[in-house]
Amino acid sequence: MHILHVIGARPNFMKAAPVLRALTAFPDVEQTLVHTGQHYDAGMSDVFFQQLGMPEPDFNLEVGSGTHAQQTAAVMQAFEPVVQQGKPNLVLVYGDVNSTLAAALVCSKLGVRVGHVEAGLRSHDRDMPEEINRLLTDQISELLFTPSRDGDENLIREGIDPGKIHLVGNVMIDSLVRLLPSSEQFFSANVTEPYALVTLHRPSNVDDLGWLRELLAALSDLSSHLSIVFPVHPRTRQRVNELGFSNQSNSRLRLLDPLPYLEFTALQRRACVVITDSGGIQEETTFLGVPCLTVRENTERPVTVKMGTNQLVGRDVLKLKRAVIDIVQNATGGKTQRRDSTCIPLWDGHAAERIAQIIVQCWTR
Ligand code: UD1
Fold this sequence. Notes:
The protein is α/β, with parallel strands linked by helices. It is 46% helix and 15% strand. The chain has 2 domains: 187 residues, Glycogen Phosphorylase B (Rossmann fold, 3-Layer(aba) Sandwich), CATH 3.40.50; 163 residues, Glycogen Phosphorylase B (Rossmann fold). The protein has a 7-stranded parallel sheet, with helices on both faces. Strands 10-9-8-11-12-13 form a 6-stranded parallel sheet, with helices on both faces. Bound molecules: uridine-diphosphate-N-acetylglucosamine (UD1). Uridine-diphosphate-N-acetylglucosamine binds next to helix 1, helix 5 and helix 10.
């Protein structure tokens, strides 16, 4: 059986790595890895392959950046001949990025089966490009691998045949479970505790320069309470440069280049609080029991809020500042909010093995 994996952007890499690994246990499975090139900077791509122990891609479509239409169309055009020549039995797509939808669309038109890893997540906010990618990818997938029960419920509500849905758990947590112990040696000694770890890259936060300016000012203010480490995504870096923002040399707010997986994981584990708009980081902080403040009005990962580690602060800098100060005071006053590794069913490091088993069973039935 021939399985082709499609990855393109940073959060895809830690989701695909454990699935590739788990499928190597089945000698009859041939695997092909296609990188669309949606993310192309070495710091956004190559270093993740090295640290996650992923094989070199068999194909790199080198589509790069562009508008949504340009990027999606470029993946579709470049990917179609790869599928036509490779004749895979199944194409696995990951998460909610443009490359995911583009590849799924190509396959559905060619009559090739698609498996969607991380199916069923919904923010119910159709202004997010990722929500459109999730909705459409799920509609045209034959195998839907969900990370949590709410994913199943969303899919059933949308009329998806329950026989296609498989609750397997969270593959991103598989990578975290495997690499957390070795991440410790990558902890940067230059960071003084307590510190907040920040990531922001959603268009709704960084493309609105007025709002981004407010957020940066809030982070500057907060740096009088704790150190702030902010690895900056390329999209955000462009906007920060447009604003002409530079932090004072004596400031405890440090803007860094994007960090590799192990360095970031080490920082995340020891953070007093994480401030983010990323989806995956809401999940990782939940697993690690680290308080997370999500700078969004909604989340497609409500389970992280239910577990109590994640709080939505929306578009409200006062709420953000108050929440950070509360967390710092509780942490330094000994009333720590940090929880023991929070246990969501099936977030156990074995989701990819379950996916591999299901795929192989489907093909040998
Ligand atoms: C994409 C995903 C988002 C995911 C994020 C993780 C979509 C719709 N969005 O957003 O869901 O959370 O990846 O990072 O697929 N750029 C570089 N170098 C790179 C990649 C990007 O400089 O290696 C710059 C380019 O100027 C580009 C911009 O960042 O225009 C945005 O990149 P893009 O891939 O369009 O979307 P992301 O914001 O990264």
